[in-house]
Q: What sequence folds into this?
């Protein structure tokens, strides 16, 4: 009887600190979440293919972009980015996506054209897929940043141009 659990007894409530580390279902089902999952998956597959190929010199770039995408997936999903207001997260994410798409495009071309083995070709194909996913992400981020900048820097503060004009004309 000591091994059997009471069916009426429910488990202890989960620890709030552990719950805060779990991914948010809302974020994972959003467009940004799906793009980050695609970035993590394509860069990891590209990393594994580069590890198995004769083009192992290119293994560092997919690893770095895999880890950065994994960190941002964790940060956005757990709302870690809202706790640290010192960083401009969308701009940092934009620069990461631009650099990743350029680097993946270059190493994919080199892997496909220079190395004859199949795993290098597979790494190049998955690198091209990663290029497309990262490029889509920076396109959407660019549109969000452009809308933000067109709005005057903040959507919450109404712009009062009459007060600014009256202060400058008082001389």
A:
């Amino acid at each position: 009887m000591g091994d059997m659990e009471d069916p009426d007894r429910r488990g202890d409530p989960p620890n709030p600190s552990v719950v805060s580390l779990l991914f948010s279902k809302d974020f994972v089902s959003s467009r940004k979440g799906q793009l980050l999952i695609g970035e993590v998956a394509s860069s990891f597959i590209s990393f594994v293919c580069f590890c198995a190929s004769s083009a192992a010199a290119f293994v560092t770039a997919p690893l770095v972009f895999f880890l950065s995408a994994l960190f941002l997936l964790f940060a956005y999903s757990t709302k870690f980015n809202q706790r640290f207001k010192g960083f401009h997260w969308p701009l940092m994410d934009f620069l990461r996506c631009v650099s990743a798409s350029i680097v993946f495009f270059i190493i994919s071309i080199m892997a496909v054209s220079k190395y004859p083995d199949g795993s290098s070709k597979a790494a190049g194909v998955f690198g091209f897929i990663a290029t497309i996913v990262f490029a889509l992400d920076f396109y959407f981020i660019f549109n969000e940043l452009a809308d933000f900048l067109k709005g005057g820097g903040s959507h919450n503060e109404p712009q009062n141009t009459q007060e600014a004009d009256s202060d400058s004309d008082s001389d």
